[in-house]
Amino acid sequence: MNRLSLLPNETLSCVPQEAERVTLKALLTFSATDSHEWGLIRARQLLAGRHRIWLMLGAAVLTVTLCGALLYHSMPLWEILLWMVMTVATAAAGAVRMALTPARAFSHASRTDIRQTAWNGLALGLVLSVLPILLCMQGKPIRALGPGIALMLFSTATAFFMAPLALATTAFLLAFGLVTASCLVLTGAPVAGVATLIFTILLLTICMSRAKALAIIETAGLALDERDETVSLLLREFEATGAHWLWEIDGGRRIVRANRQLAVACEQDAALLEGMPFLQVLAGPTWDTGHFAPGLRTLAKKLKARESFSAVRLPVWIAGEERWWEVSASPRFDNRGTFCGFRGVGSDVTDQRASADKINRMARYDALTGLPNRLMINETLSLAISETDPAIGRYAFMMLDLDRFKAVNDTLGHPIGDRLLCGVAARLDALMGASGTCGRLGGDEFAVIIPDATDVAGVETLAQRIIDALSRPYEIDHHTLYIGASVGIAVGPRDGRTSEMLVRSADLALYRAKDAGRGVYRTYEPELHAQAEERRLLEIALRSAIERDEMHLEYQPIVDTDTTMLQGFEALLRWRSADLGDVSPAKFIPIAQETRLIAPIGDWVLRTACREAARWPANVRVAVNVSPEQLYNPGFVAMVTAALANADLAPERLELEVTEGLFLHKGHGVGIVLDRILKLGVRLSLDDFGTGQSSLGYLSRTRFSSIKIDRSFVEAASHGGREALAIIRAVVALAHSLGIATTAEGVETEAERRIVEALGCTRAQGYLFGRPLPVEEARALANELVTTIIAA
To answer: pTM score, two decimals?
Structure first.
C-alpha cells in the first residue's frame, strides 16, 4: 500500500540516473552496456530511423539529381549517370533493409542491430564521396561549387534528421567528410580541405548532441511508461483482490465516492457509507464511548493538521470482530490552493499483525521452556529500573546456575536434559507468583527479576526457596535425577543503576556461590568487583607470560619410602610477573584453565621439563602434570613425541600426571590418547585419587604406573583419622594387587612419613624430603652420589 504512493517518485528518479549513463560510447555501442533499458532505447532509435528513412531516400534522390543537372556539361554523361545510379541504389538498399527489419527489433534491440545500420551509412558516404574524387581529379574546383553545396546540405540534413541512428550517421559523415577533405588537400586546396574537415566535425557534434538528447527523452518516456504500467497494475490488483482499497474524504472529513472495496472491507453498503464521518466509521462502537485507540487519535491529529501520513495502524470493529487496518493519505487542494479533503489507500493488516506478534513472542520467549529469554529479561529489568524511585526504591536481580546438569546431559543425552530444563522452568515459574519474573538466559542459566526488593531479607528467603525447590529429585523417563542450583543476588541501585551493571554484579555473586561449594546463594559485595578486576589483570598478564619469559619450573623430589633414595622430581610451574610479582599457582592455574591458556602453558612445561630431565642421571625421572584440555587435543601425542625427541629423553623417564576429573567427560577419545602415550613407553600417574568422583574402572582400563594419594588423607591419617586410614589402606591394597606404585603427597613431618611407610606407600614427596627447588639446585641434587635425602 505504501509502495503505491512512492512508485511515481521511484520511477521518475531513474531518469537522471539513465541520463548520466547516456554516453558517447553507449550511443555508438562501444561500451558493454546491454541492460533491458538500453535494449528499449535502441529499439526506439531504430523505429525513429525507420520513420525518417524514406524522407532521407527522397532527399538523396533530389540531391543526386541536382548534382547531375549542375554537372551535365562538365563531366561525361556516363560518369554522372553511373554515380547517380550507385548513390540512389545504395540509399534505396538501406531504406529497404530498414523497412524489412524484423518487428522484434522495434521492441528490444541489441547492439548488433544498431551496428548493422552502420554499414548502410558507411556505404552511402563512400558512394557520395566518388563525385568529389572525380571533380578533384579534373582539377577544376569551380565546377564542384554547386554540387558541393548540395552535398553539404544533404550531409547537414542527415546529421539532423538521422541523429537517432548515431552510429550509422557517424559512419556516413566520417566516410564522406574524410574522403572529400583528403581529396581537396591532395589536389592543392588545403584550405578547402581543412574547412571541409571542420564542417564534418561540427556535423558530428550536432549529431551526437541531438542523439544524446533524443536518448534522454526516450529514457524519460520509458520511465513514465513504466510508472503508468505499474500504477495501473496495482490499481487492477486492488480491484481484483480487495486486499487494498482507495478512500477519499472532503474538507469536513466525510466519505465521498465510497467504492466497492471500501464497502466490502467495512461490510456495509457503499450508499450508506457515502457522507458518513470517516473517523466514525473507523471508531465503530467506541465512537459513542469516547475510548479511542491511540492509532485513531494519531489519525485524527493528522487529518486536523492537514498533513500527509503513512502506515498509520489502528484497530477497527467490523461485524463485532476486531480487525487492524493500515491507512495512508495525502491532502488535496484545488487550483486556487483551497483545501478540499484527503485521498488515500488502506489495507487490512490483521494477519500481518498476528504474524508480527508471533514473531515478537518467538524473539522474546525461550522456545524450550516458554520462559522469557535473555532479550525479554534485559527489557524487563531495564523497565523495572526505570520505574523505580532511585531514592527510596529497590530492585533485585538473581542469576541461577544449575549444579551437576552437565553430567546429566553427558550421561543420559540432550533429550533428557531438555526435559529436565522444562521441569526446572516449571518449578521456578511456580515460585514467582506476582512478586517477580523468571526467565532462561541460555544453557542451564536462569534469571529472576524482583521489581520491588525493599525487603532484602525476603529476597534472600526466595533465593533459598529456589535452591530447595530445584534440588528436589526429578522423575524423568524412569530416571531419578538430582541436581542443585547456585544463586547470585544483586540489589539495585546499590549494586547497579543500569541493567548491565546489575547483571555483572549478580554474575560475580554467582561466581562466589560456586566457589563456596555450590547449592548456596551469595549476595554481591564490593570486594567481588575488586577480585574480578584482579582476575582480569591476571588474565591479561598471563597471556604474555611465556613470551616475556616470566614462567619457570621448580622441581620437588620424590623418594622411596623404604630407602629414601631419590626416584625423581615433580615439575611445578611458577610465575614471577614483571608487573604483579610472584603469583601463586592457586590463583593463575584456575584462570589458565578457564581461559584455555592451560594448553599452550602445559606444552611449554612439558618441553622445558624434558630438556632439564635429560641432564639428570638415567635413573631419575620427571613427573609433569597435564590438564584435560591438553589430552582432549588430538595432537597431544605428537607433542609428547616431539618433546622427548628434541630433548633426547628416554620415554620411560617421563611420567605424566592426570586427574580423575579427566574421565568425567565422555566423547573426547581420552582413552585412545592415553593408550597411545603408554605405547610410547611414557608412564602415567593418577593424581589426587579419591578426592573427586573416582571409579575403579579407571584403574582397570588404563595401565597407570602410580597412584598419588592426596595430602588431605595423609594429614588426617597422621592424626588418627579412621576414615583416612581406611581409604589409604584400601588404595594401597588395590594398587598392590594391580602392580601400581603409590605416592603419598605432602609428607611434612616424621610422623606422617612413618604412617605412610607403615600403610605400604612405596613413594613419598613433601617438605620433609625437600621443598620445590630451583632448576640448578635440583640438577645438583640429582647428580649427587648420595643415598639419602636430608630434609630441607
So the answer is: 0.47
